[in-house]
Write a structure and sequence with these properties.
Number of helices: 5
Helix content: 55-70%
Distance between the termini: 66 Å
């Protein structure tokens, strides 16, 4: 049985999880680990990194037994628009505030696919912005201005 590694989606997903899990554990190695009762700052990243690594190994091995292939190609439109939307969010957070920045990033991200419908995008952006405002600004007490100047 020959396994096609190049387009095996489970294999590459497993590799991604293993790399992210190992990176989390390596990044946390200089922090004190602590114990289960007295967790240090390195406890959670190390634990979650280990779980992610084991999960990635499982998915990667499962991918070697199956031959599910990736379909389709790269979306150049999404590869261009999504990073620009993140930059737009950062710039608008500085100059316009939380609400305009979040609305703009949601609408700009929706432009990454031609399948989005503007009425749905507008409703989702309003609802998500309201929810995020409640959670992050009032719930967590972050000091972002909702709208700059108000």
């Amino acid at each position: 049985m020959k396994v096609a590694y190049r387009n095996n989606k489970d294999f590459w997903s497993g590799i991604m999880f293993v790399v992210l899990g190992c990176a989390a554990m390596i990044g946390a190695r200089n922090y004190p680990f602590g114990s289960t009762l007295r967790m240090g700052p390195g406890y959670l990243p190390t634990l979650l990194g280990g779980i992610l690594t084991v999960f990635g190994i499982y998915i990667g091995l499962r991918g070697l037994r199956r031959s599910d292939t990736m379909k389709g190609g790269w979306s150049w439109r999404a590869l261009l628009i999504l990073p620009l939307a993140m930059v737009l969010f950062g710039v608008l957070m500085e100059y316009a505030g939380f609400v305009p920045a979040l609305m703009a990033v949601i609408i700009a991200s929706a432009m990454a696919t031609p399948e989005s419908r503007w009425k749905e995008v507008l409703l989702i952006s309003i609802g998500l912005t309201a929810l995020c405002s409640v959670v992050f600004i009032w719930g967590l007490g972050l000091t972002f201005p909702l709208i700059k100047g108000f």
